[in-house]
Specification:
The strands form two sheets. This protein has a three-stranded antiparallel beta sheet with strand order 1-2-3, with helices on one face. The longest helix has 20 residues. The chain is built from 14 helices and six strands. The N and C termini lie far apart (91 Å). With 372 residues, it is mainly alpha-helical. Helix 6 runs antiparallel to helix 7 and helix 7 runs antiparallel to helix 9. It folds into three domains: 52 residues, no CATH class; 93 residues, DNA polymerase, domain 1 (Orthogonal Bundle), CATH 1.10.150; 128 residues, Intergrase catalytic core (hpI Integrase, Chain A, Orthogonal Bundle), CATH 1.10.443.
């Protein structure tokens, strides 16, 4: 069988990359040349790998040979993120990139074959030592499981997935909506955090406005922190497919109160274009800051189970229970929340005995069921 080449071929005149390989032996030998339609060397490398696997399996009926080198962890991170973002479009790829870079910081740029259970334990200790919640630790290891599955599929890792040996932490995933009285306490707590914030603080100075945007829009916390001024187009907020969890365009109409919050942030604009004006590197450190803020809001509000996602749950529940049927359709609410399935949206429907009775009375009235 022919030897595999090391990568794509570049056309010096046009700058485009090509897959250029020979398959077969003797009279059956055949040259395959396919344009990869890109001038980006990193993307070309991944596309070349894809063509190589396709070509090899088609002509030889087996997996291609393993890469002839020990793959550095850092190199495969870049390849994995390019693959997930450009080809599969995973949920929140920027978060995946940030977290893998933190893992890289803990482990150093070792080759994949050197990663052992001791490295996984070291990562677990580091994350908990930096006040990551157990749920967040589970997310890190879930991401690494996907990463190693990719490495195995790409013949960059020849062993079993090491994450299979790790038992995830048991987490209480119960979600709930906040009452009007609790909403008021949360906002007062956030206002106190802002008031007590130091001059050089980041998230603390804007936490009330962050929480108001969460309540007013039902957005996820990651969507608010990554919101850019370019997303605000006229009377609406527009997220591109690559910026949402469900990988579908998301449109949120602007209300007067939302405009007031945004106007209060306009004079704080930074060159990076983010609505929440954080300093360089603060996006990557967001989990640490948010853990501190959650602790303070729990303390100041007295709501010991406070989490940011419950704000989205609250906003969703209010829209479903108060707006649905009053000129607002389920499809409208689904678009605001960014849900692609009705079942997801309907999780926020909570039965109320008073409204149930009202529904039965209307049913009786419409069907002629009256007491004699």
């Amino acid at each position: 069988m022919p030897k595999r080449r090391e990568g794509p071929t570049r056309n010096k005149q046009t700058g485009y990359y090509f897959f250029d390989e020979y398959v077969g032996i003797g009279d059956d030998k055949k040259r395959i040349r396919v344009s990869l339609r890109t001038k980006d060397p990193e993307k070309a490398r991944w596309l070349w790998e894809r063509e190589f696997r396709k070509c090899w399996s088609e002509y030889y009926g087996e997996k291609p040979p393993a890469r002839p080198f020990k793959v550095p962890f850092k190199d495969l991170i870049e390849e994995f993120i390019d693959y997930e973002r450009d080809i599969k479009r995973i949920k929140e790829w920027k978060t995946a990139q940030d977290r893998l870079n933190i893992v890289l910081k803990v482990w150093g740029n070792i080759t994949l074959d050197k990663i052992s259970k001791e490295h996984l334990i070291k990562l677990d200790e580091y994350l908990q030592g930096h006040r990551r919640s157990k749920a967040t630790v589970n997310h890190y290891f879930g991401l690494l499981k996907t990463f190693f599955n990719y490495a195995i599929r790409e013949n960059s890792y020849s062993r079993k997935n090491p994450i299979n040996e790790i038992t995830p932490y048991t987490i209480d995933t119960k979600r709930r909506e906040y009452t009007p009285e609790e909403i008021e306490r949360i906002l007062k707590a956030a206002e106190r955090v802002e008031r007590e914030a130091r001059k050089n603080s980041k998230y603390q100075k804007y936490i009330k406005r962050i929480i108001l945007l969460l309540f007013y829009t039902g957005m996820r916390i990651g969507e608010v922190l990554n919101l850019k001024w370019e997303n605000i187009q006229g009377e609406k907020i527009v997220f591109k497919r690559s910026e949402t969890k469900q990988k579908k365009e998301k449109v949120i109409p602007l209300t007067d109160k939302m405009k007031d919050v945004l106007d209060s942030l306009r004079d704080k604009r930074r060159k990076d274009g983010y609505v929440i004006p954080l300093g360089p590197g603060e996006k990557e450190r967001g989990e640490i800051w948010m853990t501190d803020i959650i602790k303070k809001i729990k303390e100041y509000s007295g709501i010991q189970d406070f989490i940011f996602h419950n704000i989205r749950h609250t906003a969703s529940t209010i829209m479903i229970s108060e707006a649905l049927g009053r000129g607002v359709g389920l499809a409208d609410i689904m678009k605001v929340l960014g849900h692609s399935r009705v079942e997801t949206t309907m999780k926020y429907v909570h039965a109320d005995l008073g409204w149930m009775k009202k529904a039965m009375e209307i049913l009786e009235e419409k069907t002629g069921g009256k007491n004699e």
